[in-house]
Amino acid sequence: MTSNQRPSPSASDEALDRLLDALIERQELRRRAAGAPAHAEAPSPLSGAPAAAAANRGTTPRPATAAKKPAEPQPGEPGWQPPEPVPSIGLGRTAWRMLLLALLLVALFNIPVTGHGVSLARILPDAEALVIRDGLLLKGPGPEVYVLENEQLRWISSLEAFERLGYTWDHVHVVDEAFLAQFERGAPVHVLLKCRGKDPIYRIENEQKRWIRDIATFEAEGHVWEDVRFVDCDYLEDIPSGPPIPEDAGAPPE
């Protein structure tokens, strides 16, 4: 080997040279990337996908479109036909039958339902529904008016008693004698009047005043002091006198 000849590089030296060149090239690329504007980044591998897809769409054959169904004619247009009627299920006929049945029941029975049940409801001869209750006012063919208390008819003995007890003629129900016969007779309803400043007590009966002889008779007749009403003497004197109680008691004191 002469002194002018250069030794051939070994394999390791060549590998080092290649690595050094690669590092220099990468450093240069980084420097260039740092100095380039932000929008100048390298396009991604997918950036060309939209264009390629558009090109493919242009070359891909489209499927044949189905034939459109002709529009159906509207009401009033030629060829329009009304829809078929829905089959009836008979609701109208059923409703009429139920209504007729209800009217028939009302006409036949005419019995009101009360809070105590139908057992307290009875039918008057004139077919007027009436609920039997305490305080019910009844009048038969005669002039007598009764009030019902505890399933007993109590005769209201005078118009004075009728009015002072707060009854009104609008509440009196006219019935026949057979209807009244269903009830037992109770003690009559009387009103007792006493003139202020005088001792005699009178029971008003059939629009007449009947003197009650004494306290024993007063109690024997079933009266109580709560039944006594005080009135003016002139008013009491205008009421016609009837037989005393008892009838053999004689004339009342002046």
How would you summarize what this structure contains?
The chain has 254 residues and is an alpha/beta fold.
Defining traits:
254 residues, alpha/beta, TTHA1013/TTHA0281-like, five-stranded mixed beta sheet, 17% strand
Would you write up a description of this structure?
There is one protein chain. With about 250 residues, the protein is an alpha/beta fold. Among the domains are: about 105-190, TTHA1013/TTHA0281-like (2-Layer Sandwich); about 190-254, TTHA1013/TTHA0281-like (2-Layer Sandwich), CATH 3.30.2390. The protein contains seven helices and eleven strands. It has a five-stranded mixed β-sheet, with no helix packed on it. A hairpin with a 5-residue loop joins strand 3 (about 135-140) and strand 4 (about 145-150). It is elongated and about 170 Å long. About 10% of the residues are buried. The model is unreliable at about 40-50 and about 110-125 (pLDDT under 50).
CATH T-level fold name of the domain at 107-188: TTHA1013/TTHA0281-like
Order of helices and strands: HHHEEEEEHEHEEEEHEH
Euclidean distance between termini CA atoms? 188 Å
CATH architecture of the domain at 107-188: 2-Layer Sandwich
Main sheet, how many strands, which sense, barrel? 5 strands, mixed
List the helices and strands and how they pair.
Elements: H1 11-35, H2 49-59, H3 91-108, E1 121-123, E2 129-131, E3 137-139, E4 145-149, E5 152-155, H4 159-164, E6 172-174, H5 177-180, E7 184-185, E8 191-195, E9 201-205, E10 208-212, H6 215-220, E11 228-231, H7 233-237
Parallel strand pairs: 3-6, 5-7, 8-11
Antiparallel strand pairs: 1-2, 3-4, 4-5, 8-9, 9-10
